[in-house]
Structures are given as C-alpha cells and as structure tokens.
Write a structure and sequence with these properties.
- By secondary structure, this protein is α/β, with parallel strands linked by helices.
- Helices cover 43% and strands 15% of the residues.
- It has 2 domains: 30-116, Rossmann fold (3-Layer(aba) Sandwich); 140-286, Rossmann fold, CATH 3.40.50.720.
- The protein is built from 12 helices and 11 strands.
- Strands 1-11-8-7-5-6 form a 6-stranded parallel beta sheet. Strands 3-2-4 form a 3-stranded parallel beta sheet, sandwiched between helices.
- Bound molecules: guanine (GUN).
C-alpha cells in the first residue's frame, strides 16, 4: 500500500472534544443544548445510526431524545410532531432521519423543520445559503470531510475535485463546500459518460455513489486523495474475498454478521496508487456524528445570540 490512511476516527474525536468544551462553556451561561431525533419505521441501518447519535450526544453533554413513529405513520402525525418540536423553545436541534418509509416524501417533511434548528442543513433555506457561499447549517458528512482534508494537509485551493454522486445529503453540498474552498469542481453520477476518465482528473476524489467498490484503479490519478463515503452492506463472499484478499477479519465478520461494510472504493487496489485514502469503516463515518454535535451546539448558541 502506498496511500496514507486518513484517520476519520481521530479527527472525529478531536471535533467531539472541541464540542464538549463548547457545551461546558454554555453550561456556565445556563444553556444546555438539546437535540431531538425523529425516526419513522424500522429500517435497521437507520436504527443503528439514530442510536449512535443519541449515545454521542450523551458523551459530550448534549441532551437528546428520540421519537419513534411506526412505519405506517401518516404524514399528518409526522407533521404534527415536527410542529410541536418547532414550537418548543427548549429544543435546539431537530433531525429527521432519512430515508422515510414509502409513501412519505422526505423532502416535504424536511421543509417543515425550523431552519434555525435544522442541524442537518437540509432545509431549502440552509441549502440556498450554502450555495450562495454564506453557510448557516452545513450537512454533517461533507462538513466533516472538509475538516478531515484540512487537518490532513490536503490542499483544496486550485485543486481539481471530483464528486461522484449527486445526493442532497452528500454529493451536492460536498461540491458546494469544495467550490467555496476554491477547488475546481466536477460532479459526476451514474449517467456520466466515461466516468473513469472524469474521475482520473481528480486531485481530490469524493466517492458517494452508494455502489460497492465502483471506484477502481482506473478511476484514480496516482497520488490523489480519495474520500470514500460509501457504506454498503455486502453479503457476497466471493466479492469480499476479491476486494480484501487474505483479510481474515473481514471473512470472519461476514460469517458472523452475514455482511461486511464495503465502501464505494476498491480499497485494496486503489490504496496502491492513491496518495491518501479513507478506510471503510473508520474513515468518513465517524465524522458525520461529530458534525451533528457541532451543528447542535452552534444552533444553541445562535438561537441565543451567543
Ligand atoms: N440518513 C443518512 N445520513 C443521514 C444524515 O446525515 N441525516 C439524516 N437526517 N438522515 C440521514
């Protein structure tokens, strides 16, 4: 392996420590930040994420609560819950876990969240501000990635950056943040012609397409920084053996849990040519929750003019 491993877990720990300090400072002013999380349905991955968010809040001293609505909950019930949280002055952050079960339209409900408490940065007001270059609440994963790149010494000004994937949660805000940092940004997606050639232009490649091991050595310029946002559950033993040859821990995990988490990047092969790379797990994942904690404290401060 040539590539330097970008340690998202270490950067996330540093962010959490900073946030814990800010919570402490707020406590001295009688302010105790509070996050409320809404989970609709029983998607297993969402359950894991929501539990992790609650635990992380506890660890840095942020109060948090979870509201579980059944998969068959009506839109009226969800809208009423969001309205009640918006009306509660003690609530600093409101997070609606995505995706919502069908037929609920996630975007329609994200639009109902008070932008001043939209700690995900998904409300159109916050999306618009980000694209105007005057960010309010920035989506947690891309914000964490920029902090990881900065702390790892990866230059962005003048760099060619390619973002693979155009989701509202990662791809689009990622591109806006890189542009704000003076990178030359290209967005590509499943219908991009000659995807490998476009990706090979990148000094900084962010893979957020949701396809296991889509990014191969053919997509990576030697020396590039490769950020892997993918979290794909893979249960195909032959694929896992090909992607992680000789990795007994992965094989064991697959046998025990029935799946292993694989990123959007063919890690073993790409690490041989990239200059820097994030692993899955332990790369980008921990940064998302760290960003959420930061946004919650920021919301608590701003709402009080602090
Ligand atoms: N689903 C996957 N990632 C996220 C996230 O960052 N926020 C919310 N609300 N839902 C998600």
């Amino acid at each position: 392996m040539n590539a330097r491993i970008l340690d998202g877990a270490a950067v996330a720990a540093a962010i959490r420590e900073r946030v814990a300090g800010q919570v402490h400072e707020l406590a001295a002013r009688g302010v105790s930040p509070r996050l409320e999380v809404i989970l609709v349905g029983d998607d297993p991955a969402s359950r894991v994420y929501v539990a992790a968010k609650g635990k992380a809040c506890l660890q840095v001293g942020i109060r948090s609560g979870t509201h579980n609505l059944p998969a068959g909950a009506g839109g009226d019930e969800l809208a009423a819950l969001i309205a009640a949280l918006n009306a509660d002055p003690d609530v600093d952050g409101i997070l609606l876990q995505m995706p919502l079960p069908k037929p609920l339209d996630g975007r329609a409900f994200l639009d109902l969240i008070d932008p001043a408490r939209d700690v995900d940065g998904f409300h159109p007001t916050n999306v618009g501000l980000l694209h105007q270059g005057r960010p309010a609440f920035v989506p947690c994963t891309p914000a964490g990635i920029v902090e990881l790149l900065d702390r790892s010494g990866v230059a962005l000004t003048g760099a060619r950056a390619v973002v693979l994937g155009r989701s509202e949660i990662v791809g689009k805000p990622m591109a806006a943040l890189l542009l704000a940092r003076h990178a030359t940004v290209t967005m590509c997606h499943s219908r991009t012609a000659d995807l490998a050639a476009v990706c090979r232009e990148a000094d900084v490649l962010v893979a957020a397409a949701g396809k296991p091991a889509l990014v191969t050595v053919a997509h990576v310029k030697p020396g590039a920084a490769v950020i892997d946002v993918g979290v794909n559950r893979v249960d195909d033993a032959a694929l896992v053996a090909r992607l992680y040859p000789g990795d007994a821990e992965r094989q064991g995990q697959l046998a025990k849990r029935g799946y292993t988490l694989v990123g959007d990047v063919d890690f073993t092969a790409v690490a041989a040519v990239a200059g820097a790379i994030t692993p899955v797990p332990g790369g980008v994942g921990p940064l998302t929750i760290a960003g959420l904690l930061q946004n919650t404290v920021t919301a608590a401060r701003r709402r009080r003019g602090l």
